[in-house]
Amino acid sequence: MQCGAWDSLVETPVVSMAGVKTKISTPIQKPDRFHEITSSEKSRISTGNSEVDSVLGGGIVPGSLTLLAGDPGIGKSTLVLQLAGDISKTKKVLYISGEESAAQVKLRGGRIKDLNNEFEFLATTDVDQVLSHAISSNYDLIIVDSIQTMASQNLSGAAGTTSQITNNTNNIVRVAKDSNTAFIIIGHVTKEGNVAGPRLMEHLVDTVLYLEGERYGLLKMLRGVKNRFGATNEVGMLEMTEQGLKAVENPSEALLMERQELPGSVIYVGMEGTRPILVEVQALVSPSVFGYPKRVADGFDINRLGLLCAVMQKRGGVNLSTQDVYVNIVGGIKLTEPAIDLAIILAIASAASGKIINTSTVVFGEVGLSGEVRSVNMSNLRLQEAKKLGFDKAIVPASVKGAKYFGVKTIADAIKTLK
Description:
Blueprint: H1 50-56, E1 65-70, H2 76-87, E2 93-97, H3 102-110, E3 120-123, H4 127-136, E4 141-145, H5 162-179, E5 182-187, H6 200-204, E6 207-212, E7 219-227, E8 235-241, E9 244-247, H7 251-255, E10 265-272, E11 275-287, E12 295-298, H8 302-315, E13 323-329, H9 341-353, E14 361-363, E15 366-367, E16 373-374, H10 379-388, E17 393-397, E18 405-408, H11 411-416
Parallel strand pairs: 1-5, 1-6, 2-3, 2-4, 4-5, 10-14, 12-13, 14-17, 17-18
Antiparallel strand pairs: 6-7, 7-8, 8-9, 10-11, 11-13, 15-16
Helix pairs in contact: 4-5
């Protein structure tokens, strides 16, 4: 015993709370019957950007809270600055900056051609000021850049701590619903790509958007991972121009514009949300110099690449044990859909054999460890999009039927199409 004494245990009776009456000071609210509740479809706020509106499900819902996240330097502040300018043409907008001064934001805005300057601006890190403006000034939209810089005097801890982020976000949600003011807040991300701070913040907000792409690349992808007012996993394609981030009306055409007909190049039809997108997959195979073959991937999971190389060697008869394999997804896009497996394998096989895949052919299909090619969702929609852009042939799973489509059951069958 820690006390070091004898006979120190004292019997303590446990008092049961059964039968104890608790006085409730709050009046009981009468519940409504669900079928008697009336729903009102409020008009959405158009952002002025067709791709952003599409990801949001048609625009910003009044009284909603949208979280925009992405890597540093990806273009989050540029995007919300444009949205503030476009929306302020018809609505009352307040831009809150906690990271930059008014002069710094003005300088950044000067680099965006034809930016509308009718919105109001406030540089502060006091979240209580933000809430006061939302309650008293009747704004349609308030943008907060960023939530990690905001702090409340009523809470302990510095800005960016768990207590500050969760409580401030919760207060913004409450004020947004009460005042019918829409909020867009920017959130930092960690090295792992998650929103900095607790994941609870993602559960509090109505919509979560991620801006993805190469930091210095022209094309960016706006991905919706949560949306209480629309479909999830919607994707919008944006291009960095002198006017800032502009909508790309035909993403597939933009991604294939500079394609060259060389071995190792394959056109893959992927699904980003409900939209089919054609992307060029490139592969390069070269003899390993150091004896240990390298596997390098840009825009694709490196572990998945190693797995597919092992399947090719075991099931497809392609010896890669002494070859370095490099895979690149053109445009700086990151793809995780299993349907890209067959395109990766054929790009590697093409690069290893030096044979070019037919230029009017697209490829998609999931590959298993046994080398089988499995069916994927929305095959017809993928093929329709490919046909619009002039691709009338396809190497696809055997379950997809079509006169000009080459259905394959295994990767060995797919690799034979190169001969």
